[in-house]
Write a structure and sequence with these properties.
By secondary structure, the chain is an alpha+beta fold. Helix 2 packs across helix 3. The N and C termini lie far apart (35 Å). The chain binds a DNA duplex (13 and 13 nucleotides) through strand 3, strand 4 and helix 3.
Length: 200
DNA sequence: ATGACGATTTACT
DNA sequence: GTAAATCGTCATA
């Protein structure tokens, strides 16, 4: 996996189809195919954590070099995982919103606390916080090197034809005015692991 | 020190 | 469809 330093708008659609791999302390391998992402463009993007050049302990990771992880905590209970991209200091990243689980499905169910409920595999990682819960991604993986690292990394996947992608507004950024409507979300058309599908 | 607010999820009416 | 959960982060003072 190289070329993670490209602009977020370019990287985001290319990440779809890539495999995200998490290796736990005990060696267990959890993985899945990325099916949904969102691009956050930096200081001019009102919906972005680095809007206005905001530099705080939390956002510092977004200014790092492409290919590192930006993991942040929100709503008092959820973690979200991003791939930092662009040039150093740009403050851009791609939020990974959903993956199709491949390896370690039972362990993911356990992590999600849905063993008894038998939550269907396709929905275990259908959402940015679900994905982090299932893969045990938390602040300890902030700034992890997604290319050289061995706890959390990306693997190239089969090319996904542009025609198989859909594009639309990002989720949960209603307060961002025009930026809320800018189509910076990409997902695999009709895929069962996508977090939400827009109404007709 | 304080208060408002989340790049969400879940349960419930 | 609506509401609650839950607390770190950040702006303000």
């Amino acid at each position: 996996m190289k070329a993670l330093s490209r602009p977020a708008e370019e990287l985001a659609p290319r990440l779809i189809g890539c495999r995200l791999v998490r290796v736990l302390e005990d060696g267990t391998r959890l993985s899945g195919r990325i099916v949904e992402v969102e691009a956050y463009l930096g200081e001019h993007d009102r919906a972005c954590h680095t809007f206005g050049g905001r530099r705080t302990p939390r956002t510092e990771a977004m200014y790092a070099r492409g290919g590192l992880a930006y993991v942040y905590f929100t709503y008092g209970m959820h973690w979200c995982f991003n791939v930092v991209c662009g040039k150093v200091g740009e403050g851009t990243a791609v939020l990974v919103r959903a993956i199709l689980p491949e390896e370690g499905v039972e362990r993911m169910r356990a992590n999600r606390g849905t063993v008894g409920r038998r939550e269907r595999a396709e929905r275990l990682c259908a959402g940015p916080a679900r994905l982090c819960q299932a893969l045990v991604i938390d602040g300890g993986l902030n700034l992890e090197d997604l290319v050289q690292g061995n706890r959390l990394f990306l693997e190239a996947g089969a090319r996904v034809p542009e025609a198989d992608l859909e594009r639309g507004a990002r989720i949960g950024v209603e307060q961002a005015g025009a930026w809320a409507r800018t189509p910076l979300r990409w997902w695999l058309r009709g895929h069962p692991s996508v977090s939400r599908v827009p109404r007709e």
